[in-house]
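To whoever is on call:

I kicked off a structure prediction for a single chain this morning and the downstream step that reads the tokens threw a length-mismatch warning. I double-checked the sequence; it's 171 residues and nothing unusual in it as far as I can see. Pasting both halves so you can look.
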Amino acid sequence: MAKRWVLVLSRGKRITLTPVVVAPVLLVAGCAFVPSDPLPAHFGAKVVNGVIQVKVPLCPGDKVTRVSVIDADARSSDSPSELWWGTSPKSDAVASGVFHLWSATDFGRSDTTPSTVPQRIEVDYSAPGGDGSGEVFDLTEVRSASLKAGQYWTADGPRTAAQIDARLKCQ
């Protein structure tokens, strides 16, 4: 005989539940309450010789085509202005997601360095197909991070470039 459960409601009404009814309900509930997406792959940042270097998480073969920086605290405005942008990466390393902000040497075309840099910036990148992502950095945290050689500050703690990329679920 098949297993059954009896659910007693507040007014004494009873509902008999069988595995045929319970299984789909649990499956739907599991999908709703258990995230199916992987953990976010946070960008990394560090200060190298006074310049902010960023590591964007990318899958093998993916490339960065454009980078932009905006004031993260002005993000809620209707049209936050870009502080800086760079396009046409000059090297494979830059196209593979490691670049310096405010750098004319990393990009074929770029804006001039802003006169003032806010404490919270959002760094966004675009890939050839238009996909991309962004990350907000508190520059006080980035500047004060205790990092070993090859590490970047991330929202999850210090990570190497390989560890940043490994958080992605590449296909």
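Update from on-call: the warning came from a stale cache, not from the record. Cleared it. Sanity check on the structure: The domain at 44-166 is CATH 2.60.40 (Immunoglobulin-like).
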